[in-house]
């Protein structure tokens, strides 16, 4: 049986570069790259940051965990 709080939680990773440049309206790319993954709450209590491919930037960038 499952306990009250799940150990593994679903998190959303968002490109930090696209999030900073989304305020610029002159930029051709209007999308923000996001990935959905899971993390273990006990092993990784802090925010998750991974280097993943961003199709908007066309290169590998740091994707950070955001609030739901």
TrEMBL record:
Transmembrane segments: none annotated. GO terms for biological process: translation. One of its GO terms (molecular function) is structural constituent of ribosome. The keyword Ribosomal protein applies. One of its GO terms (cellular component) is ribonucleoprotein complex. InterPro entries: Ribosomal_bL33, Ribosomal_bL33_CS, Ribosomal_bL33_sf, Ribosomal_zn-bd. It is found in: Plastid, Chloroplast. It comes from the Eukaryota. Belongs to the bacterial ribosomal protein bL33 family. This is Large ribosomal subunit protein bL33c. It comes from Sophora moorcroftiana. The lineage of its organism: Eukaryota, Viridiplantae, Streptophyta, Embryophyta, Tracheophyta.
